[in-house]
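Q: How would the structure tokens look for this protein?
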Amino acid sequence: MTAQLRSELLKLRTTRTMALLMLGAAALTLFAICVEGISPATGKLAQEQTQRELLSAVTSGVLFATFAGLLAVTSEFRYGTIRPTLLIEPRRRVVLMAKLAAAALAGIVIGAVSVAVAFGGGSAVLAVRGVDFAVNGPHSLELGLGAVAVAALSAVIGAAVGALIRNQSGAILALVIYAFVVDAVLFAAIPSLGRFLPGKAGDALLGRPVDHLLAPGAGAIVLALWALAFVVATTLRISRSDV
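A: Here is the predicted structure in token form.
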């Protein structure tokens, strides 16, 4: 398992995909910070809730972390490198667990980059606008550590979805449809049900000031259960199907 994990981490380090995803996460986070920091009036920007929404730009990292996990798996199926991987390590569950662990670590890195950009960029925007930082310690901790945790779990879910669907284009399309259609529409229509979706559970873990979300602790449990469900489904599929 250790050797296979080192191999998976080497793949992530030696391809441009991971670096591009980190740059994309940083750029989108900074863009969201600028938009959210410039739009409101100074008085409103001084309010803690507005600043929490400003720093919620860390969710950009969550999306890119999910893509990191998905691409790490689907790229192997797309280019056929999964076959030599399984020839070297024929125990499929070992390969899968190594890929999931590598995806989680990639998610942690992307999440940490997004947090650094969000808090650094947010503080700079507030300083330029002449507004004091009003987010208290517990909420800052939720946004910071929560974003890293959500990114890690989301990367695991992305890797699991990639292993389930395998077709890279199909997996990306499914992820985009879920993120921008299913998650938002179901939560808007039936918030009591939609808040249990992975995306909204992640928002809850971040402590976002949005009505009808779960408490941060409950959000963490729900998101972890989603990740576990996808891992179990993926384990069953990879054990019973050809590659």
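Residues 92-129 form the longest helix (38 residues).

DSSP finds twelve helices and no strands in the chain.

Upvote if useful.
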